[in-house]
Amino acid sequence: LFSWGENREEAISNMVVALKELSIRGDFRTTVEYLIKLLETESFQLNRIDTGWLDRLIAEKVQAERPDTMLGVVCGALHVADVSLRNSISNFLHSLERGQVLPAHTLLNTVDVELIYEGIKYVLKVTRQSPNSYVVIMNGSCVEVDVHRLSDGGLLLSYDGSSYTTYMKEEVDRYRITIGNKTCVF
């Protein structure tokens, strides 16, 4: 990566902005979030770095910034529920194509979702009200979220007055949810 500016501070700032606008998705994990964190450290800004600097950060377990916990939980629940609800419709349609009519109760509109994040278990109920409107319920509280499926597999969510582009990567034993340039793992 290269960045230019009138001085070091401007060049670093330009690189951070460019990295925040960068989105790399694939079967491999990227270090863009971590790189942004490194570039924003005071030591890097003041050019007080050496070969041991990165070793010290690794030893201190410096981590990339994570999304707000509740935002992560809501996004995770919506991704998991969306997959389940789409599978339900797909299975129903495939049975119709084979001349079978499944009972109406097999068409789900509500999904129970359990997520564990940083050692805390979240139990949610997600209900689809319309193709683009969902209600997420947790601990007696509910929130409405507008959801639009993106052509690249992501979801565009309108939640709590803001819009978020979010992706889910389902791994063998966990879900990796990316919200903007921040990642959380359930």
From TrEMBL:
Gene3D superfamilies: ATP-grasp fold, B domain
UniProt xrefs under InterPro entries: ACCA (IPR049076), ACCA_BT (IPR049074), Biotin_carboxylation_dom (IPR011764), Biotin_COase_C (IPR005482), Rudment_hybrid_motif (IPR011054)
Name of the molecule in the record: Acetyl-CoA carboxylase
Keyword presence, Protein transport: no
GO cellular component, one term: mitochondrion
Keywords: ATP-binding, Ligase, Nucleotide-binding
GO molecular function annotation: acetyl-CoA carboxylase activity; ATP binding
Gene source species: Cricetulus griseus
Biotin carboxylation domain span: 1-59
GO biological process: fatty acid biosynthetic process
This enzyme's EC code(s): 6.4.1.2
